[in-house]
Write a structure and sequence with these properties.
globular; five-stranded mixed sheet
């Protein structure tokens, strides 16, 4: 978890109706953010959201708080998170805000801020907003209040932008694609982008009702997509998450293709086309198979902390253009300032049609090692990761894995939920599964926390 009071690795998130995702908190958050951002010269804010029913309530609260601080808000309606990063530049907004809990259930929601450059706010700005939250809410004079407006052509503008990232000499006419929109923010965007580029598109989970976002669909649950790809005899399937910044894929056999494999495909094609310009950034969770496959291509690879903001920081530090999380956040800095599921999927589709090769065959160059993740609920009273018994146990398991070949153990706190994530990776799936559950069970005993 973040050492800040409210902000985690992906903004502020929680259950709707419980602190901090309450109307009064969000109103004051809008005010506090407005006060801090106004000191940096900000006056115009762009606000987007996903399809959660609570988005209406939260955008109203945010707008009231921003107006009280003297900032004007302009609404896009349901829109993918990366679209806000793009539209900010088009409409010359100083700040972007997305109301979304990404891949979480509908009764969660969250607030994410973007700077004028389309990136997450720096830690120091988030800290300043938290400090402002401790002060009494005030209001600027009536003639200084912010205004509100709505942008009616936001979707069309973003559709055209996405299409512009696809090579002009290529078409998708040969592909039949199933698209799972997670009943989320891509439901109006992704099918239109792919259809306009010539694909035969079958769309599922594109009837949002405010409560079915991510429900048995999308990037976190591929079962419906897999079934549909097989039933339709499609070439592949694409699954976005609720706010459209993640992409997962399914090949024509119904096999899952995750963020590590997508990153590998894009990196290898970038190398072939002479467009890679450096190395690739993954995270501590990136599969060791990705690291080994990139090594064979002599592509440098670095791991950042988990969280797309940390991937981006490492990319900027190294001046590299490509980075990703295995969960499907793919960042292509030559095209977008943040993770974008639609744009990333277009790069894979371009590779397929340019080389006349299936997604299944594109994945043959990377051998994924079995990786098992077990969550342990964390009550926050004591830190299991600092427990000496837990450290000793982890070292013993790593020694066991090393004797079998490649393998590693990663224990970390979730940045968005009160969980300890136990990840074990190695050559033998049965052994990896057994060891991951063994460590999780021991953490519950040794560190006195409760299992999920």
């Amino acid at each position: 978890m973040s050492n800040r009071k409210y902000f985690g690795t992906d903004g502020i998130r929680g259950k709707v109706g419980k602190a901090p995702i309450t109307p009064d908190f969000v109103l004051k958050l809008g005010w506090a953010a407005g006060k801090v951002l106004a000191r940096h010269g900000s006056r115009k804010v762009l606000i987007g959201k996903d399809t959660r029913i609570s988005g209406y309530m939260l955008e109203s609260a945010l707008e009231a708080g921003l107006a009280a601080a003297g900032l004007s808000a302009f609404f896009t309606g349901p829109m993918p998170t990366p679209a806000i990063a793009y539209l900010m530049r088009i409409f010359r907004a100083d700040v972007g805000i997305v109301i979304s809990a990404s891949h979480n259930p509908f009764d969660d929601n969250g607030i994410k801020f973007f700077s004028a450059e389309g990136t997450k706010l720096p830690d120091k700005v988030e800290k300043a907003i938290e400090l402002e939250m401790e002060k009494p809410l005030t209001c600027v004079k009536a003639d200084k209040l912010g205004r509100a407006g709505r942008i009616v052509d936001a979707a069309d503008r973003y559709i055209n932008f996405c299409k512009g990232t696809f090579p002009t000499e290529l078409r998708l006419n040969t592909l039949k694609i199933v698209v799972d929109c997670a009943n989320g923010a891509t439901y109006q965007i992704a099918p239109n982008v792919l259809s306009d580029l010539g694909a035969t598109v079958i769309t599922i989970a594109n009837q949002p009702d405010g409560m079915n976002i991510n429900k048995a669909c999308g990037a976190t649950d591929l079962r419906m997509l897999q079934q549909c790809v097989l039933a339709e005899k499609a070439d592949l399937g694409l699954a976005y998450d609720g706010d459209g910044d993640r992409i997962m894929m399914v090949d024509h056999l119904g096999t899952k293709v995750d963020g590590d494999q997508i990153l590998y495909i894009i990196a290898r094609e970038g190398l072939r086309q002479g467009e890679l310009h450096g190395g690739v950034v993954g995270t501590l969770m990136s599969n060791m198979g990705l690291e080994l496959a990139l090594k064979e291509l002599n592509i440098p690879f670095l791991r950042a902390k988990v969280g797309d903001r940390y991937v981006l920081e490492k990319m900027q530090e190294k001046k590299w253009r490509l980075g990703a999380e295995n969960s499907g956040h793919i960042i292509l800095l030559d095209k977008m300032s943040t993770g974008d599921g639609i744009i990333a999927s277009l790069q894979v589709l371009a590779t397929m049609v340019r080389n006349q090769i299936s997604l299944y065959n594109l994945c043959k160059g990377i051998k994924m090692l079995p990786q098992v993740l077990v969550n342990v609920c964390f009550n926050g009273v004591s830190d299991p990761l600092k427990n000496e018994n837990v450290k000793q146990l982890t070292a013993e398991v790593e020694k066991t894995l090393a004797s079998q070949g490649h393998g590693r153990v990663l224990l970390r706190k979730s940045g968005t939920e009160p969980l300890i994530r136990v990840m074990v990776e190695g050559e033998d799936e049965e052994q990896v599964t057994r060891l991951a559950h063994f460590i999780a069970d021991q953490i519950k005993v040794l560190a006195g926390v409760n299992g999920e």
